[in-house]
Amino acid sequence: MSSGGSKDSKTDSTASSQQVVVGDVTKPGGLTPIKSAQDKRSYRVVELPTNKLQVVLIHDPETDKAAAAMDVNVGHFSDPDMTPGLAHFLEHMLFLGTTKYPDENSYSAYLNSHGGHSNAYTSMENTNYYFDVTHPHLEGALDRFAQFFTSPLFTPSATDREMNAVHNENAKNLQCMYFIYFFWSCVPS
Ligand SMILES: [Zn+2]
After folding, report:
1. Interatomic CA distance for residues 134 and 141, integer angstroms
2. d(CA 91, CA 118)
3. What is residue 29's predicted lDDT score, i.e. its pLDDT?
4. What is the longest distance spanned by two Cα atoms in the chain?
5. Which pLDDT belongs to residue 18?
6. What is the per-residue pLDDT for 98?
7. What is the per-residue pLDDT across 111-149, written as a single tens digit (0 to 9) for each?
8. From the CA of 84, how far away is ligand 1's center (Å)?
9. Helices (H), 50-184
């Protein structure tokens, strides 16, 4: 997981048929965003009624896996002065057990056994989580993924361990900056 996307759409009823944006993000049909004429995928933007979460749905009949990502609009710029690394630490912790799936390895084990993988990164103003998995197992993966954002456990043992993990990642990144400065190359961990 690293410490380090954006979406945009607007209504334009005068645009060509390739670019037209129709609908309302809050309605069941959602928005159809602008896309390239070469892009064969189908897009729809909807807003979930219960929590107002905005979702971009992408349909690609040729892809061999399903995938999802969640972008949280908080990154390390939001870290309190007294707790640098907090956003990155929280990124680590969400993977490590939830009320519904308390086993720390539940999420990764499910993805690994169904041809998938996951990762996440913390940037300056956002934190992003993502995974892919074979098509029949998207629903099961989404259910595990969604628990991250509603009921993470934050167990004491994982808290201690991940504080050290984030500290070590930061130390390696600082070392990497040294190598880039003096030798113009570095392979980050
Ligand atoms: Zn990390």
Report:
1. 10
2. 13
3. 73
4. 57
5. 42
6. 97
7. 999 999 999 999 999 999 999 999 999 999 999 999 999
8. 13
9. 86-93, 106-112, 138-147, 156-183
Residues annotated catalytic, as ranges: 91
Residue 133 token pair: 């998995």
The pLDDT of residue 108 is: 97
Give, rounded to a whole angstrom, the gap between the first and last alpha carbons of the chain. Answer: 9
Phi and psi at residue 119, to the nearest 5°:
-165, 180
Instruction: Give distance in angstroms: CA of 152 to centre of ligand 1.
Output: 17
- In terms of residues, how long is the chain? 189
**Alpha-carbon distance 7 to 30, whole Å?**
15
Residue 7: predicted pLDDT: 35
Q: Tell how far the Cα of 92 is from the centroid of ligand 1, in angstroms.
A: 6
Residue 173 C-alpha to ligand 1 middle, in angstroms? 11
3-class SS at 77? Answer: helix
What lies within 8 Å, CB to CB, of 175 at 6+ separation is none
pTM of the model: 0.78
Distance 86 CA to ligand 1 centre (A): 11
Q: What is the rounded CA–CA span in Å between residue 90 and residue 128?
A: 12
Which of the residues in the chain have pLDDT under 50? 4-19, 189
Pairwise CA distance, residues 30 & 51, whole Å? 16
Helix (H, G, I), strand (E, B) or coil at 121: strand
